[in-house]
Structures are given as C-alpha cells and as structure tokens.
C-alpha cells in the first residue's frame, strides 16, 4: 500500500497557476525599494538598494539589520567574507557561498549572499534563526518585519510578530566603500520564500496551513471560517476547489518549495501511484479578493465527496467514490461467523508499483482469493469478499460491505512501499499490522503473528494508525502490510506462488484462532 498519513506538508515540484490579476498597488509595490521594520521602527535602507527575491528567498542588507542590533560586524574585502559577532556567538558568511558557519557548525543557506554595489545582501531567515529574531513578510507592500531585536540587546520592549506571519525573508550585507579598510559592516542569512499570512494579512483572515494527497483524498488544513466552493470542468476533467477570502499561512510556505512572483506558494502535490489523477495544482488564484485555489485534474470525469471538520479545520475531497457503487451484500444468515476479506486497491488504483513494474493490487487479490478458498472449503465461517476481480472500489464501499454483512471481523491485505527519495529505500523490509481502535488490538496481535509466519520477513510489529477501513468499521478490523515492494527480496518473494500459498494458510489460521474455531 502506498504509504499514507505522512506529514500534512509535502514538497512542491513544479510551478502552477499564474495570477491574472495585478492591481495598481501591486505595480507600485514592485517599483518600491521595500522597507525593513525592526521592533516597530523603520530602518534606513542604503541608497539605491532594493529588497531582492533570489530563488524564493528575500534578501536584505545585513549591515542595516545587524548594526541596529548592536552586533560587531567584520568585513574581509579580499575573501568577501562577513563575520557577525555578539557576546560569545560568531557567524560567518561569504559572498557567493550557499554555506555559512555558526560557532564552527556548517549550515546551508537557501540563497548565497550577493554583493550589489557597496552592499551585501543575505537571506533573512538565517539571520533570524541565528540571532533570535522573528520575521514577517508583507508581499503586497514589500515590507520585512523583524521583532525580538530589543530583547537580543538587553531591551524589553520588543513587539511580538503576529502568529500568522509568513516565512522569513532574505537579508543584505553592505561592505565598506572602495578604498576602505578590510574591516567593515556586513551581516547576512538565508530564508525561505516570502509568503502571505504576514503582518499584511487582515486579522481573522482564513489561512491554508497545509495540504496533502494521500489514500486518493485531497486533505487541506485551514484555520478561520471559510466555506470551500467546489466545481467541475471538462477538457481536461478537473475538480476546482476555491477558498474565498483565504491566503496561505506561513506554515504552508515553510514546508513547500514553489513560490509565485507575488511571493505566495504555488506548485503541485505528489500524486504518484494514482493514475486516475493527472495532477493537483495550487496557487493564490486571486489577490483582490484573495482566493486560494486547488485544482484536481483527473483522467476522466471523477465523482467526489466533500467533507469538512469544524473542530480540526480539515477539508477533505475524497475521490474514493464510484458513480455506481456495488450493491451491498446480504448476510447469509447461517449462524456462522462472518469474515470480510478485503483485497486492497484494484481497477484504476494499482496501489504501490514495484521498481520492476509489479502492481500491489495483483498481489493483494491473489492472496485474498486463496485465503477465501481455504476458509470456504472448511466451511467454518461465511466469507464475504469486498472484491474478487480487478475493479475500482472506494474505501467507504469496503466499509459499507462489511457493515451490511454484519461481519464479525474485517481483514484487509496490502503490500508496502517507500517514495523514491527515501534513504535506504531498497533496504527497508518486513511485515507489519495496523489497527485503529482498541477493540481491534487482540485481532491485530493474533493476525500479525500469523502474517510474519506466512511471509518469513522481518517482524516490524503491530502499529496503531488512523486508516479509513480500520477506523470507520464497527467490527474488529486490521490492515496487513505483507512486505515492501521497494525491497528486491520482499518483492520477489511476494509474487512467488510458494509465499502466497503459505501466507493464505496463515491468514486463514489467524482468523480461526481469533474466532476460537
């Protein structure tokens, strides 16, 4: 099964939508040099210097900030190296280098310090992190807000940055004028992309804090009151989700890489492993009024289910919906225990795909069929399959089948995988069992014992996780992850007849042990 529930915040890989609106205010701001506000006081910018955006990092003159903090700054003209010192702390940066040192520890910068005329510009986040400043960015007016400076030099009148301030902005360093000594003032740092949700954001404005696509669902985390507007369009098929009045929060940009020309996040979510979804894009679709937009582009017309959770601020667009879901099976009524066997994924949802091209859905179905045949031959239980063919089936439909059958237990089979950029991707291996509700733990412990016996793989243990089929079902329910398709040894074994036969016998044995048969 494709790993789900990863952090709500994933890396962006491509730019998305270009804003079609550019007002007079934006144009005026674009011609402005920008401002730096330190503890509610505007700092004087060097003549002819503008705040710059380098690779998504806002750069500011480092000397302007550091000298106002009372730090000692040394400039080495020959090496173009800046040293900033305060008490026992020392930070070194060099023009053109994307690494810096803080007390001897090497750190990476988002953007390398650069020299413009007699001024050195550096990313502001690095400075803020090293010297205890908080940073906000108002992209519409090109203003950097810094707070905490007074406290860092012994004062007590620093003003707090609003909690919805965006990610840090870059900084600039000013070397001495030509003909000066080798020691001058120049500090700098690195920062992520400028973002809305900063001091320029109206109080109470809804903010998009994060988004992820997993388990065939787009989940968007928000704060503030906003009702999503969802519509569909053709050529290509797409589901459009708008959040009127909303902006991106600093937390969102801090976890994503794509940044639009207006400083707001834009890009695409990872949809690997979901062939029915072409791409999912997001951007600040409109600035006046502000509107955050997500676009789910699909291979064909796709039904969906929208749900909102007011207590958590989570909006979910669930694509696990069928236009014509299968009819719910009827409980046979023989008095025997009813067991639901669920082969994960299927149809247009292949699940994980191994490096050699093997599909998880095929493994799941093969073993579940074998398990069901063994149980039916013995005649001790009634067996209900969620699917016996290669069909697309939503998560809700799997649960509905189990509920309609008044099942005594629910067993779902999957195979695991890891993303391509995961370290040691080919080495991670083993079997694990998941449950969601405490009532399912006894079943999970018994089934896991038999799962490991059936695969012979490393024992990764029993784990609690909020998965739809194990969470929403009312009977004891488990999800078995037999092994990792991204591990060559696991993959070869999982698609062997011998392992599949052995695993089917063990799953059947585990079910009988739990039911006391």
Automatic annotation (TrEMBL):
Ranges for the region named Disordered are 154-208
- Write down a Pfam family by its short name: Cu_amine_oxidN1
Q: Which domain of life is it from?
A: Bacteria
Task: Return one GO MF term.
Answer: N-acetylmuramoyl-L-alanine amidase activity
CDD domains given in the database record: MurNAc-LAA
Q: Which residues form the signal peptide?
A: 1-22
Full protein name: MurNAc-LAA domain-containing protein
Q: Which organism is it from?
A: Paenibacillus albidus
């Amino acid at each position: 099964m494709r790993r789900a529930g990863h952090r709500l915040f994933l890396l962006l890989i491509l730019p998305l939508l270009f804003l079609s609106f550019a007002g007079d205010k934006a144009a005026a701001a674009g011609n402005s040099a920008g401002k730096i506000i330190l503890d509610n006081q505007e700092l004087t910018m060097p003549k002819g210097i503008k705040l710059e955006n380098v690779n998504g990092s806002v750069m500011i003159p480092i000397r302007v900030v550091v000298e106002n903090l009372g730090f000692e700054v040394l400039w080495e003209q020959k090496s173009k190296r800046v040293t900033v010192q305060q008490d026992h702390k020392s930070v070194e940066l060099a023009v053109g280098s994307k690494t810096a040192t803080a007390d001897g520890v090497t750190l990476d910068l988002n953007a390398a310090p650069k020299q413009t005329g007699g001024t050195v510009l550096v990313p502001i986040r690095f400075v803020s992190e090293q010297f205890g400043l908080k940073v906000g960015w108002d992209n519409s007016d090109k203003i950097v807000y810094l707070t905490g400076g007074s406290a860092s030099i012994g004062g007590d009148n620093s003003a707090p940055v609003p909690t919805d301030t965006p990610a840090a902005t870059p900084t600039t360093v000013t070397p001495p004028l030509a003909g000066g000594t080798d020691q001058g003032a120049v500090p700098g740092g690195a920062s992520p992309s400028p973002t809305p949700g900063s001091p320029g954001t109206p109080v109470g404005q809804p903010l998009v804090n994060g988004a992820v696509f997993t388990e065939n669902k787009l989940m968007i985390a928000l704060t503030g009151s906003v009702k999503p507007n969802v519509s569909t369009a053709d050529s290509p098929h797409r589901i459009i989700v708008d959040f009127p009045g909303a902006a991106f929060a600093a937390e969102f940009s801090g976890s994503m890489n794509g940044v639009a020309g207006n400083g707001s996040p834009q890009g695409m979510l990872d949809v690997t492993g979901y062939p029915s979804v072409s791409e999912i894009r997001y951007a600040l679709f409109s600035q006046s009024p502000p509107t955050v937009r997500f676009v789910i582009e699909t291979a064909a017309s796709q039904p969906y289910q929208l749900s909102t959770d007011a207590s958590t601020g989570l909006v979910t667009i669930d694509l696990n919906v069928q236009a014509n879901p299968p009819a719910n099976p009827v409980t046979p009524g023989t008095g025997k225990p009813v067991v639901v066997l669920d082969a994960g994924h299927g149809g247009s949802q292949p699940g994980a795909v191994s490096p050699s091209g093997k599909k998880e859905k095929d493994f799941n179905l093969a073993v579940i069929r074998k398990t069901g045949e063994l149980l039916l031959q013995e005649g001790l239980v009634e067996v209900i399959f969620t699917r016996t063919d290669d069909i697309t089936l939503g998560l809700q439909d799997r649960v509905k089948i189990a509920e309609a059958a008044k099942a005594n237990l629910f067993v779902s089979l999957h195979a695991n995988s890891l993303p391509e950029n995961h370290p040691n991707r080919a080495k991670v291996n083993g079997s694990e069992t998941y449950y969601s509700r405490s009532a399912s733990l006894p079943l999970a412990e018994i089934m896991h014992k038999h799962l490991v016996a059936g695969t012979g793989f490393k024992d990764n243990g029993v784990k609690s996780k909020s998965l739809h089929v194990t969470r929403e079902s009312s009977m004891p329910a488990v999800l078995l992850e037999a092994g990792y398709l991204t591990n060559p040894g696991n993959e070869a074994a999982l698609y062997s007849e011998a392992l599949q036969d052995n695993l089917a016998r063990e799953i059947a044995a585990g079910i009988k042990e739990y039911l006391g048969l």
